Predict the structure.
Amino acid sequence: MNAVVLKPGRDKAVRNRHHWIFSGAIRDLPDFEDGAVLPVHSSVGELLGHGYFNRKSSITGRMIAFGSEPPEAAVRRSVERALALRARFFDPAVTNARRLVNAEGDGLPGLIADLYDDVLVLQIATLGMEKLKPLIIDLLTGALKPRTIFEKSDLPARREEGLEETEALLAGEPVEKVRILENGIPFWVGLAGGQKTGFYLDQRESRKLVRECSSGRRVLNAFSYTGSFSVCALLGGAVKADSIDSSAAAMALAQDNFELNGLASGSGTFFTADVFEFLREPALDHDFIILDPPAFAKKRTDVVAACRGYKDINRLAMQRVRAPGLVLTFSCSHFVDEVLFQQVVFQAAQEAGRRVRILQRHRQAFDHPVNIYHPETAYLKGFLLYVD
Ligand code: SAH
């Protein structure tokens, strides 16, 4: 029988619809080609579902179907459900950029699909999903009729899967950057060479918040990428919004985003610099500092060093912000959960010697759903802090 058989007592996660199977849970692996979809059985021969398998990966198997549902039908249904969820919540006349498929969050491990107006961007993280790519493209093309399909799979983690990092035009005309609309605000999204799939869609709700609480404030947008928080701050009435990022390409696109929104060049300065050093500059006059760093902990063993980094920038921001001021602080490391992040912010406040209160908590935007059966899909958390 060409099935993967789990060890006795090691089938609970899969029964609970968790997507991952680690090698330690596997009793028998049949002969198979890496990336193939295989049935998964309990130790007593009960069919638990189907997953794709790769011996090279630290996560040997990833489930794409549970119970007796045939795998291709399950993938089709997961894509349909993912699209149905987004169709309910977005008015394309106001917001035409959204995440369509959020990997395990939508039951499709290894797949991110984002739509920027009529440009579909795919990110494939695993060999198993690479093999399902033709089916995925077929399903998404049928439903959306995109002008262009671009693959942005420039993920170092692909190496572990035996895949190269790649960026490629898959269909349609070549596009360098797309103009999107988010809550009525236009932004440029750079495709080739950009980060993520081009734009941090997961911060949509935080951008709305920044717009709402920037009136009359001097804003420092640290780790600004293409300046989206700065644009929102200025449209919300900020006196100025300075942007700082280590990427010169991101800074250039940030300036284009100011122009696109008719914001005067004097409304903010763009610094291509290191945030850790910049926050030590003596001449800061900001009363609203936004900290949205990259994931400092990419794996569990990074957590201690990551927390030190988070503590440093938060302490500096709390020390430097003019009181009464706001600090909007984020962590997008899955391994640093909200409880731990709050502890880090507590330590930063203690060291800064400032009075700090949490006004609001934030999570990834709702088109990045957290699968209740697969809690690893939760990664972004943030606090709006009041410092006086
Ligand atoms: N807030 C942004 C996303 C930030 S992503 C948005 O909503 O669009 C994190 C950014 O931090 C990236 O653009 C990366 O280039 C930048 N970065 C990483 N390390 C940095 C450092 N030490 N100093 C300044 N920028 C840094």
Observations:
- The pocket of S-adenosyl-L-homocysteine is lined by residues 195, 200, 203, 223-226, 228-229, 245-247, 250, 274-276, 292-294 (CB under 6 Å).
